[in-house]
Task: structure prediction
Amino acid sequence: MAFRRRNKSYPFFSQEFLIQNHADIVFTLVILILIGLMFEATAKTAIWFIQPQYNVTTLTPEGEVTLYHYGWKDCATVLFYFFIAIILHAVVQEYLLDKINRRLHLSKSKNTKFNESGQLCVFHLVSSVWSFYILVTEGYLLHPSRLWENYPHAHLRFQVKFFYLTQLAYWLHALPELYFQKVRKEEMPRQLQYIGLYLMHILAAYVLNLNRVGLVLLFLQYVSELGFHIARLFYFTDENHQKMFDVWAASFVITRMSTLTLMFLAVGFGLARCENQGLDWESGNFNTLLIRMSVLLLVYLTQSWLLWKFIRFQLRRWREFRHEQALRKKAATKQSLRPMKRDSLGHYENGVLKAENGTSRLKKLKSP
Result:
């Protein structure tokens, strides 16, 4: 199963060979793990990679419900879906983005940004729809108090735990993709920043059992980022499509304000009023003043940094727009000047008729 066109063959174990065939290599590893399910000796180990572990069956008024908590075996599950994310990344790149790129004929720098926005657009679309479905089915939208009531939320439903594991797997896979996609050194710091921020926030929400609040925050963030990457894709196809950036700007500000308000309401107010205050590793209770303040500080600093970058981006756009308008006015002024024609008496220069004897007199020129 080949994901890339083989324009040139490279020696085995060379850098170019690894970059060109990384998806095929990873696909082989996935097949080997799936084959391990077929044998009794390896089935118990292979299932760690495919199915979330640490399930507990509890009795509820609705009947028996299987819930999950986290543990070190989740690393194996994240690793498997890390491989799956690399394969899906290659599929989207080969069968969707590369075909569009060949039609657009973008420059190398724009091509890199187009691929980045294309990949993130697909991921944000899937993740926002998925997280919204979980919020609706779990009832967090209609009953916001469930975001902090009965903390700690150490036991998760299958869809919630699987969502967090796949989120960690995707953002971890984005690190080697910087190498596979040959991202320029100038772009590395920017991409490492947002990849690291996503991993840090998702892991903190998962480990500290703030998964309900994390679901809402991820949904808001993914919807906002989806608007930005859609606007950027349209901009690369036609640079006149800039109005979508204005729509994204409005949603960005609303997202930041909603995130800050929700964090204060859920962590600063809701958890502070819970009865079970204290640190308990066995039950997964991290409801202490120090941890609450640390979480709020982390989120508030991140949102402030994002707002600062947003303001700088908007100011740069405004300066570029003003500069472009000035150039257009200057070009329009030059075009309004009609070229002068020489006649038998003399010649015109800037609306002045100069005779052969060197004298000059004003003459009104006709409009073109």
Notes: The radius of gyration is 29 Å. The chain has a mean pLDDT of 85. The chain has nine helices and seven strands.
